[in-house]
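Question:
Write out your own:
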Amino acid sequence: MIANPQPGRLAAGILLAVGLVPGLCACVADGGSGPGALQIIESGPGQPRLATYDCGQDGAITVEAMQNAVRLVEAEGSSYDLPASPPTQASRFGEGNVALVVEGGEALWMKAGREPVTCTR
């Protein structure tokens, strides 16, 4: 067995590491749960509970705000459930090859293989 030539230094390092763990754990995001998490988006300056956006020649989209997500329905009936991205976000939603950014009375609808479309409420 090999003796540790500096036992006090090892003990100090362990105490430092143990003391930092609770502080670092407090900095980690909790995935959107808890009292500060986005729940249901109510009417107000942000996204209303249910809104229809006119996308000009591309038709219209209907956006329903849900808990930490939106449900988007295109004019032809295609439906997408888009989670907030990142989870604490209240205006950006997306998953896979589709995304929606809602700001004020406008919605930017992006879908792979198509030009992004700006729609207005």
Observations:
- The chain is about 15% helix and 35% strand.
- Residues 10-45 have pLDDT under 50 and may be disordered.
- The longest strand covers residues 60-66.
